[in-house]
Each structure stands twice: as C-alpha cells, then as structure tokens.
Write a structure and sequence with these properties.
single chain, mainly alpha, 2 strands, 55% helix, globular
Amino acid sequence: AIESPPAVSPSKAVGFGSQLNLPAGSTGSDDGELNAFTVAADVARVTVEVLSRRGDVVDGDTVNITRALLTAVLASIRAWRDGAREGDLRVSGSSPLREGNRLGQILWPLVPMLCGAASAPNGGTDSVLALSVLRELADGLMSTPALVAAMQSRAPLPPLEPPRPPVSPSPLARSHGMDSSGQASIVAVPFKYLGDAPTMALRPFLELNAAIDGADGKENLQRANVGSKIGVEGSVDEGVFGGVEVPAALRLCQVLGRSAEGAESLHRLGLIGQLTELCKSLSGSTYHPAPAHQPSPRRGRGRAGFAPDEADELAEEHPCVDPAALYCLALRVAATHADAVGSKPEVHDGLVAMAVELADRFAAALAPAELTVAALAEAEATATLLHSLAAAANGPWQLEAPSHQVRMRASAVDFLRWIAAPPPPRRGVACAPRGSAQASAARRPPLVGASTGWFHSCALGSVPPVAATPAAAIAAAVAANDRSTPAGNAHSENVAGRLYATAARCAAFLASFPRANPTAALGSETLDSLSGQAVALGEEMASRREASATTSAGAALCDALTMTAKSLLEFASALERLEAGEPNLPDPPALRLHSSYSLVSQMSWRESTILGDPK
C-alpha cells in the first residue's frame, strides 16, 4: 500500500468523462478519438465550476457529488500521465510540461477547499481524495512555491495519529513460546546437525556470537517476534486513531518535501515532531513487533492507496492500515525532508532527536531476527533515513549524540558483514513466505531469475521447512546452481533484492562520513566480498537483461538490480578508500539514492519528472 502502483487506464478515464457529458472538444481528431489531456482538462473545468458553487451547508448529496468529481479528476489526470509517458495520446505540437501546467492552472482554485477536506481529523475517504489531488498538483502540475502560497490559508495535513492496533497473538501462545498458529516460534539446532537446512538471520547470529563462547559452530534460530524490547513504549490514547488519511498525507509529504520550498512549508507545520510522535507510538508494544500471522490489511491499487472504483470499500467504519508499512513510510518522509532541508539547524536538531528517540528500533531493524519482506522493508527504510541524516547533518549529529552515531554505524557494519558472508551453496537462508500474497508469489516464476549470492540462498530457503527433505534440498541446490535458467521464485527474488538494497543503503550511510571510525570498520575482507558480489550481480543482470525484457516489470526490476549493484560497488569502493585513510570525496550526483522509495520497487536513483514518480 506504500509504493505507487500502476496508474489508472485511459479507458477508465474516458468512462468517467463520458458520464460527465464532456464538451465535444474532448475529442482529439475528426474520427472522434478521445484525447487524454483534453478529457483531463474538461473534467477539471467541470469540477472547479461545480465545486465553486458549494455552499457552507454540505449535505449528503453534495458529499457524494464531490467524491464523484474528485475521483474523476484523479482518474483523468492519471490516464493523461500514462498516455503522456507512452507518447500516444498527446495533442500534436504539445508537451507534457505545457499540458501539466495547464491542468495545474485549471485546478488551482480548488486548493483551499482541498486543504480543508484533507486536514479533517479522521476524514477517511474524503481526506484521501483531497490529499491525492493535492499530490497530483505537487507532482509537477503546479510549481512548489505557487502551491505553497495557495496552501497558506489552511494546512493540508490531518493529525498523524497511529491506526487501530492490530489483532495480537493469544497470550497463552506467547507464554509457551508458540505463535498464533500453535507452532513453535523458536527452533535452535547446532549447525553440525542441520545438514542442508536453511541458515539463520542476522540477529540470532549476533546474539549467539555473544552468548556462546567456543561452541562448535553457530546455532540456527528461526524466530517469530523474538528480539530485544524496544525502549520507547509509545502510548495510544483510547479512541484516538488515524485512518487511511494518514498514509495519504505522508505520501503528499513525500512529493511536496522534495523541494526546499515544500519541505520548509512542512517544517513550519511541525512535520518532524509529528513524525517522531507517530513513530514512537508505532514502536510501542501495542504495534511492534507485529503478530506473526496477522491477516494482511486490504490494499488498494491507486496512488492514493485505492482505485477509484474501490472508494466504497474504503468507506468502512474502521479501514485497515498496516502499522509496519506506515512506520516505514514515515521514515522515508523524514529522509526526504532531510535531503531537502536537513542542513538547516532548526531542521537537523529535530531529525537527530527523532533518530535518538528511535535508536533501539533502528538497531533492531538492521539486525533482523528473521528474513521477511516486512522486516527488510523496515531495514532499508531505516538505513535510508540514517544515510540522509549523515549526508545532511553529520557534524551536528556528532556533536549532539556521538554515542548514538557510533551505535548506528556499528549496526550498519554488522549488517554488511553478514551480507558479505552468504551461506554455502548447499545451504539456504530461511525466508519462507508469510501470508497468502507471499505464498502466491512463491508459486510464481521470478521476473529476472538471478542466482548470484543471496539470490541463490533465498531461492533455497524460500521453500517452507515442512516440505524440505534431503533429496529436495539437493535438487533445489542443483537447480539454483544452473545459471542458464532463472533461479528461485517471485518471493525469494523480492527478499534477495531487498537484502542488496539495504546493503547499498548501509554502504552509502557509512560512506557519508569524512573519516573512518575504528570501532565501526568493515575491513578489507568484507569490502572485497561486497565488491565481488556487486560485480557478479551486475554481470548477471547484463546477461539476463534480454530475457527479462520480455515484460515491463521484468525489465524494470533488472534495471533496479543493476543500479543497486552499481551503487553497492561504488560505495564499497568509497569505504575502502575511507578505511585506507584517503580523503572522502562527495559521491557523484548519478549515485545519489532517492530517499522516497525502495531501490528494488522504484528506480529511486532517477529524477522525478512531470510524468509522475518513477516505477
């Protein structure tokens, strides 16, 4: 629900346009073919004309009409973006920049009304619609200074309250070391008895390293919700909860906060303080760690978190919001804010305070107890914020919280050392799918099918333990070693990609400092392994590019993994020079990683354009 899914199809926007009885000018040629930009412009004009006549008293019919009009605006704008990106629905002689500017001019009178609807506490679907239209305006339809000026009369953000707490496992199950399904949540077996069983995640590795001195090998732990307690408990007031409007507001902040003007306007609204309180609440025992078998919240498909034809589903009394995904989104918003204005004293003080407040959860995120999609999403979001903070305010962070900075650097070093030592070829890393969506992904073939390093380990470890037999493990290992065929499945590919994305973020974070720290040094062996894996992954992506290019999703993921490998290699080389005592030069602009999205799910090294966020 956090990343931006595909845009609404042009045919759906045409359907909305026909229902509104648009003018004849919506056709782009003599044969009556509808033009996406003209439809979007006409829908916008109709919406502004109708909503400008709204009175102070808003009854049920007015609300329904407003929802329908704003939904049509969203659908038509997204259809225009989709068509402009493909270049097949553009008016002859026009350009996306000119068309986008025209749409922004038409919709500009709606900004005060949209801000009022967006800022309503517990606004639900109505707030989401208003926030989504504002996000479209911020994403290239209006200049940021003009939009900020239009929003001066009314702040566009609702209260950033946490969602309703998720269903927790039964106390009886927790007290007996069982998860909510009745299965044991802790399994400890010495390595010498494991054979081909999957190996462990990082936190058990670190804990056993510290607890077992002179033992014969390490131990294998598969844990569910086992780890250090978070110091910040967070409090949730009874009856004070946020809904679907909170993630929609944060997504607006992501777009608006990429420029200095937008970030400064958000700072004046106390954004970092609100994010800190939200993350503290989401880090309390009420929300974190999440139940191992909690049902997945219903997720929509539109950029605002839903598709226009799903508005009724979002109008439930208590719509579901995933606390873990909301927490990661909040971290990315803070990182985007740091990239834009983090060097200013009035901003970096709040960012450092936020990082110190969440120190325990940050350290735990970079030492995941188990490899799940949610755990790795949080690990990457954490490393992203640390990188942005170090790049923007390394000196003030060192002065205000030196021990915290060293602790975060050491956590990133531990993660990279673990990534530098993947399991042996016949051993996988336990990353069985969680929930129906991931189980479905595990049954699908991979988009790219990489078999380098952790892709191989995850391909073996994604098989549920109950199905693993010695013969099956050997067969899986042989198949994964065959570089001529795609390895793994869609789920294992997702997990491995996120591992390397987090590694690239951690390397970027450590390379942001002007000097090496002896207590947080990687060493030549670790750096050589990281560089070797990055080179191997880049070479494999080059060889698989032709096969993965058969689908747009496969080509996009191949590009994402190629750039992730390149970034990891470049930052590992920078760390090698740093630890050798050479001066740390600023990284080239081409390697500055976008903080708003995951390196795997978004091509976040590319600049955002008028055509929307990169996919």
